[in-house]
Amino acid sequence: MRIDAHQHFWRLADRAGQWPPPVLAAIHRDFGPEDLAPHLSACGIDATVLVQSLPSVEDTRWMLSVAAATPWVRGVVGWVDFKAADAPAQIEALAREPLLKGLRPMLQDLPDDDWIADPACDPAARAMQRHGLVFDALVLTRQLPALRRFAARHPDLRMVIDHAAKPLIAHGEIEPWWSDLAALAALPQVHCKVSGLLTEAGDCLDDATLRPYVQALWDLFGPRRLLWGSDWPVLRLAADYAGWWEQAQRLARQLVPAPTPGDLDALFGGNAAGFYGLSPC
Is the C-alpha dihedral spanning 20, 81, 52, 66 positive or negative? Predict the structure, then answer.
C-alpha cells in the first residue's frame, strides 16, 4: 500500500476566527474527499490518515463521519483537551470509533512551550495507551525538549512528530533542531513524519535545500520509523500534490546509505499502516 500519513479536510463555516486567514487564498476554502481523490488516483496512493486541524471534539466527530463515508480514509487523528478533568472519559468515548487511531493536541499554537511536559497531561496519555491510540505531536523545534520529557514518562505511548518539528529550512538552520530531535529519536517509541517540509522552506524548494533535512531524519529514525505525508491542502501554499510526491521519492532515492526497495515501501506506506493499525486495501 502507498499511504499518505497526513492530510486534512475542513469547512470554513466551522472555522470562524480560526486559521487559515483569507490572505492565504490557496487554502481559504472548503476541502473534502472529492478534492483530494483525483490527486491520490494520479499518484497511486491507496489510503490516507485524516488529521485534525481544529481544537474541537465536534470537528473530530465530523472527521470520523467523513472517514466512515470515504473508503480510502483508513484512520483519523482527532483532538481532546488533554488537561480537561474529563479527558480520560472523552478519550474512552471517542475510542469506541474504530477509525479513530490517534489524538493530537495543537501544541505549536500554545503560548507555553512546556505545556505538554506538565504532569496534568498524564491521565490523558494513560487513557490513550489503554485504548491503543497514538500521539501525534504538532510541535515547533523549541518545544522538542518538553516533548522529550513527556515521551520519557510514557515509554509505551506510541508517538509521531508531525512535519519533523518544522525545522527552519528557509534560514538553513540545523541546530538546535538536530540535537533536540536526536534526543527524541533515541526513544524507540518515537516516530517522525516526512511531511510539511516545503511550507517551511520559503522560496528554496529545490532538492539541494531539502536534502540535508531529509538525510538527518533518515540518520536519526532509520527506515522503519519514518512516515511520508502530504500535509495537503496546506501543501498548496508551496507546491502541488504530485510535485511533493515525486520530490519525496526522488530525495529518498538519494539517501545514504541507499534505501532498499523494502525501505521505500516502508517509508511510503508500510510504516504508516503498522503505526496507525490501518486496515489493508
Answer: negative
